[in-house]
Amino acid sequence: MLRTFINILIPVLLSKIIADAAMGNIREVLVLTGAVLLIKLFEFIVFCVSDNELKKNLSVNKHICKLEFYKFFFERPVHELFSLKAGETKEKLNDDFETITKKYTSTYPQTITAFLSAAAYLVYLLSLSKWIALIFFAFSMLQVIPPIVIRKYLQVNYDNCRDIEAELTDFVVGGYRAFLLIKLYKLDIWWKKKLAGLHREYSKIGRKSIYTGTAESVLNDIVNSVLTYVTYGLIGWLVLKSIVTLEVGVQAIAVSGSVFGLVRTMFQVIRDVAVSRAAERRISDSPTAAETEDARISAGNISISDLSFSYDDNELISNLNLSIDNPKISVIKGKNGSGKTTLLYLIAGVLKGNAGEVRIDGFSSLELTASNYPGELFFLPQEDAVFNFTAMELFGMMFPGCKDKVLEMAESFGLSRALLLESKISELSGGERKKVFLAAAFAVDPVLMILDEPTNSLDNGGKALLKELLNQREGRTLLVTHDVFLDDIAEHIYVIDKGANDEDV
Q1: Are strands 314-324 and 363-364 parallel, antiparallel or unpaired?
Q2: What contacts 496, CB < 8 A, 6 or more positions away?
Q3: What is the pLDDT of residues 202-211, one digit of tens each?
Q4: Is 272 within 8 Å of 102 (Cβ atoms)?
Q5: Residue 406: CB partners within 8 Å, gap ≥ 6?
């Protein structure tokens, strides 16, 4: 509002300078000119300091908001997080977040300020002349044309750009993960062609965005030219016809740029809100954990009813019914492709079945969130995560302030303190990585531990310790394994094949 006051005060002083100059009052002209310069210097200093402070506070609060948003985002059910692709996640956590925060940190505050300033300008223009106020109001409405004409194209381009950017990211990440296979099977030519095709599509959408932006810019330039010259001409005509005084005309012309710029800002909100709504839809397109019952695992009893799951028309599990509520250690066996690993993912709440349900202690596995991991449920997939940080850093994140137990467990698996401290998990051998995650699992000692092929890559010493630790555990353990090494400690062995299961005690 201070800037609005200054923008109104300066035209008043300018009109007086011109009037005094016409009358030959040199002293008054110099005094008023000095006053204008001082006011502009004051405006520069005040807004330079305030804008810097505002940007600093905005940056700090945006980071706080982003941390809260991450917390909110990762409280989603586990199966939703697992189903997100790398590109989609990047778009949601970065670009869409920035778009939404802009709505609340910039768009909305600017809108409120703009309407307050508009009210001040309206009062000022009416005080000059109702004809001046009418001219400004009528011609300001012309500025609504570009945003309304362009709006739907902007929103479409926004959606298309985000989608193709996400697809590009996913394709590049997939190529990185499958780099060895691409080289071994000479798929590099296919991969490059596919990537080139995605880039062509991205360029095509980008050109549309450029054309849309250029069209909006041209329309704005045309409208601004009309506003400027026609407004000046009409005000000059009013002065010549003595409908308004020269002083009033000068003030009106001097303030016209600020008024039209203000109205243009108000109409830009239409475009910004349309884009932010698209971003909000992308981020909030699925329910959050807050909308589900607070699941708690206390015993680890598993009940599976009429469970079915298919992937790309390939039925992996069909009408499976299974109850695991007594044995401390249960083993699931079956042929390759029988759905063993998929079943573990469904029980852990990582995948969502096509039909039926999995319940743990009466709660749907789809209600599980990050708060249930790893203290209540620890799921160790067959393929170990390849992190780009050390095992000690991993333990520090999982056991903040209390790493002694997990370090002792890791060392009992034969991992040296130097290896845990200095080597990144991505640099470890398969057996060493397996031992790192098994050490974390047994240090957590969850209510329910789910292990997929835990003996893979383990040496004989590691297998022996694993069997001993499983025997000593009080909690429930469910594991998939081809290795008969653990069969003698299993209280129940379930053999499944797409849902049909036989039970051996």
Answers
A1: unpaired
A2: 320, 322, 332, 333, 334, 338, 339, 340, 343
A3: 777 777 766 6
A4: yes
A5: 395, 398, 399, 439, 440, 443
Q: How far, in Å, CA of 208 to CA of 206, rounded?
A: 5
**Res 288 pLDDT > 50:** no
Q: In what order do the strands lie in the sheet with 448-452?
A: 377-380, 448-452, 476-480, 329-333, 492-497, 500-504
One-letter amino acid for residue 191 of the chain = W
Mark out the alpha helices in 103-187 (DSSP H runs): 108-128, 130-140, 145-177, 179-184
**C-alpha triplet 464, 433, 401: angle, nearest 5°:** 95
Q: What is the mean pLDDT of the chain?
A: 81
CA–CA separation, 54 and 496 (whole Å): 62
User: Cβ(484)–Cβ(471) under 8 Å?
Assistant: no
CA distance 15 to 249: 8
Taking every pair of Cα atoms in the chain, the longest distance, rounded to a whole number of angstroms, is 112
Tokens representing 328?
A: 């401390």
| pTM for the model | 0.61
Q: What is the pLDDT of residue 157?
A: 67
DSSP-assigned states of every residue in 80-94? HHHH--HHHHHIIII
Closest CA to 289 of 97, 80, 86, 91: 80
**Do the beta carbons of residue 76 and residue 286 sit within 8 Å?**
yes
Cβ(148)–Cβ(216) below 8 Å: no
Report d(CA 179, CA 177) in Å as an integer. 6
pLDDT band for position 216 (cuts 50, 70, 90): low
Residue 287, preceding peptide bond in cis (omega within 30° of 0):
no
Give the separation between CA 176 and CA 182, rounded to whole angstroms. Answer: 9
- Please tell me which of 240-254, 374-388, 426-440 the model is most confident about, judged by mean pLDDT: 426-440
Task: Report the first-to-last Cα separation within the chain, whole angstroms.
Answer: 80
Identity of residue 501: N
65 to each of 51, 282, 283, 399, how far by Cα in Å?
20, 18, 15, 26
Cβ neighbours, 10 Å, residue 12: 17
Tokens for 129, please give them: 């002349």
| pLDDT on residue 505 | 36
- Phi (first) and psi of residue 302, to 5 degrees: -115, 130
> Six-digit token pair at 32?
């008023």
Cα torsion 466, 468, 473, 476 to 10°: value is 60
DSSP code of residue 235: H
- Residue 285 CA to residue 119 CA, distance in Å, equals 38
3-state secondary structure of 101: helix
Q: Would you say residue 265 has pLDDT above 50?
A: yes
How far does CA 15 lie from the centroid of its chain? Answer: 52
Beta-sheet strands, E only, within 312-418: 314-324, 329-333, 355-360, 363-364, 377-380
% pLDDT > 90, the chain = 21
pLDDT, tens digit, for every residue of 369-416? 778 888 899 999 988 888 888 999 988 888 887 778 889 999 999 999
